[in-house]
Amino acid sequence: MKVMWCLIAVWAGIAGPASAWESDELDARSIILPQSRVIRPAERMARQAVALEKVNARILVNGRCAVTHLELNVRNNGSSPAEAELLLPVPEGVVVKGFYYGDGKAAWQASLMPADQARRLYDRIVARRKDPALLEFAGFGAIRSSVFPVPPRASVKLGMVYEQMLNPTDGRLDYVLPRTEALSGGVPWTVRVELAPGEDGLGNVFIPSHQMERHQLRDGTVVLTLAEERMNPGPFRLSWQEIRGKEGEPGSGPDISTYATPDAGGGKNGYFLAMLGKDGEPGENSILREVTLVLDRSGSMRGDKLARMKEAARQIVSGLNPGERFNIITYNEGVNLFEAAPVEKNEASEKAAHAWLDAVVARGGTNIYEALAAALSQPAHEGMLPVVLFLTDGLPTIGRTSEKSIVALAGEGNKAERRIFTIGVGEDVNAPLLRRMAEVSGGLPSYVLSGENLEVKLSQVFNRLYGPVFRNVRYTVCSPDGREQPGRVQDAIPSGILPDIYSGSPAVLVGRYVGTGPFLIKGTCLDRNNRERTFSITVDPQRIAGMKDDFVARLWAARKIGSLETALMDMGGTPSDTEALRHNPKTAELVEEIMRLSRDFGIMSSAASFFADDGSSADHVFPGTSLRSGQVGRVMQESREGMDAIALQENAVAKKRELTLNKYNIQMDRRGRAVSFSGTAQIAQNGYFNRNGVWMESSVLSLPDGGRAVKTVQVGTPEYAAVADKLVQSNRQGLLALDGSVMVRLDGETFLMQNSLP
Hints:
Layout: E1 7-12, E2 31-32, E3 38-39, E4 50-62, E5 65-76, E6 82-90, E7 95-101, E8 106-107, E9 110-113, H1 115-129, E10 141-145, E11 148-150, E12 154-165, E13 172-177, E14 189-196, E15 202-206, E16 212-216, E17 222-226, E18 236-242, E19 255-262, E20 270-277, E21 289-296, H2 304-319, E22 325-331, E23 335-337, E24 343-344, H3 347-358, H4 368-376, E25 385-392, H5 403-410, E26 419-425, H6 431-439, E27 445-448, H7 454-463, E28 468-478, E29 489-493, E30 497-498, E31 501-502, E32 507-513, E33 519-526, E34 532-539, H8 541-544, H9 551-570, H10 578-582, H11 588-601, E35 609-611, E36 618-621, E37 628-629, H12 642-656, E38 667-668, E39 674-675, E40 680-683, E41 686-691, E42 694-697, H13 698-701, E43 710-714, H14 718-729, E44 741-746, E45 749-754
Parallel strand pairs: 4-14, 21-22, 21-25, 25-26, 26-27, 42-44, 43-45
Antiparallel strand pairs: 1-2, 1-6, 2-3, 4-5, 5-12, 6-10, 6-11, 7-8, 7-12, 9-10, 13-18, 14-17, 15-18, 16-17, 19-20, 20-32, 22-23, 22-24, 28-30, 28-31, 28-33, 29-32, 33-34, 35-36, 36-37, 38-39, 40-41, 41-42, 44-45
């Protein structure tokens, strides 16, 4: 029960006034900290602790005003009444609108503590209770309630409502809900955000901290709900762009949001993220699509696979908008076309396509090259977005089977620049080939694993392509006066060309900036009418860079690792033996950089991890450091096909497109299951690795001696408080929520922070 939205101070037995926090009566009370770890009073005073059962959060945003509703269920399992007090970390500047207890009819009092007063309270609790977790909320204010009763063997409902006005940064509004960085979860909760559109709409709704599901109401309100039961640790973050004036008019260029954070080495350089999007319902501004379905009808597709594929194809044709075009190509050792060129979708063409699909049967081999050549040689229609959905369940067995030839056809041979979205069905596909076919053309690979529904998966792929608004997005880096200046940005991902922009699905550019002066990112794109639109992004680190936007650095690192992993695999290196790759002159540089980034940011990569047979744990190895838990990094069996190969491709591509922090390092294992790494943590711009109960910061691991010259500081001492203050300055106070001890690097010294009594 470590993940929770607030902290509750609870005591059983004799009630006392709110000021009792400062009295000796504190020794008679149990305290539940943000990790849900109960600190019990002296043994002679011990009582049954009150526990948090669940939390529901609802955030209502209208313009620049955000209203947060928190509802908590608290239970007393003891045999006597208990009394409790709520202490809730909140951003500065909130206004308490209400606090209720029980059925909501009983009004209760709550007061707002400014950040400095809350910090003094946290310090007193830490000093007396020997637990540092509260200090991860240093810098926040706190809402504190009066005492309320909790009946024995019963649950009560607590409600808190507070309001805050949000201040824009470059037209961007940011909402933060403080939460602990503790790793383990267990408290059931829900969260729902209702984001009302402003006068001119919303732009670039972005949740970097948690994976959310999104839908839009008829009035334009964007509703966000949690997509998964398990939640990332750390604060909940939400950002969106204010759209004002002509920016929101039809035909304008993309909406642009920028984020930046200084690096951990002193802030002379840093990381940036630029988001180019266009939110709202797709409509008259959407680019018309030309969709070609290329469907495998080889003998291995017989039965249910063929039936589901044909039904999905029918749904895709029926789901096209008026004016859009389509064609269908089926292939085995030969190639068959529905029409010689894409036709406009109408009632007659739709009916004819359905009838043509009914006659398709499965038999023969798999001629991937000729099928792709037929799709790419079709005449293109100017102003439309050309898309190929290429499906196969096997390897190229007929005709030109060379991977190099097929990839060259998808790239240099793709004169109309058709975006190829590959769908591999089952495990008997060449996973690296399908990824490369997609990536060289601006598409994406997908895989339908055993047990997954082909019809559903193919429809999901197509649905992601709904509502394109800008295509052919290109950019250059310039000085403030517009002169090209590529040296201001390093390691930009992607380089030069951005993905197509779909409604609600922005294109993202991340990179490292050099120096602290402003620079421009200038670019062009094409709209629905094939007209060129220009855009200009100003990145001014001195004005917008902040330590609290450190998610930018981690997203860059994940995307960089994914790019290096795919480059390694494109060279023919599958990380089945990390040590061998490190000693191969062709691959050593890539592997070393992957492993360095993995260590520095706490992001597990294929070259620095392998999955246990039972899928429940993972071992890591970082050569050249003192951290070694497990054996040298065998990742998966080297193969171009099978579940091993698919997992490698899926994990790398997921990193390359990561836009939500993956703090549990959830990845696919060799059996197609999602596994997480419990021995790693990501806080601020640092990775942390658990070694025999001690969390080792990446800055310590990079030292030649492994940080052996260590100063030990014990929780509750003035020395510990002084180190905690330095952590607050570098936004690393979240590491105080990690269980056990943490070894960190500060001002050239190594400290072992003992977060609990020996």
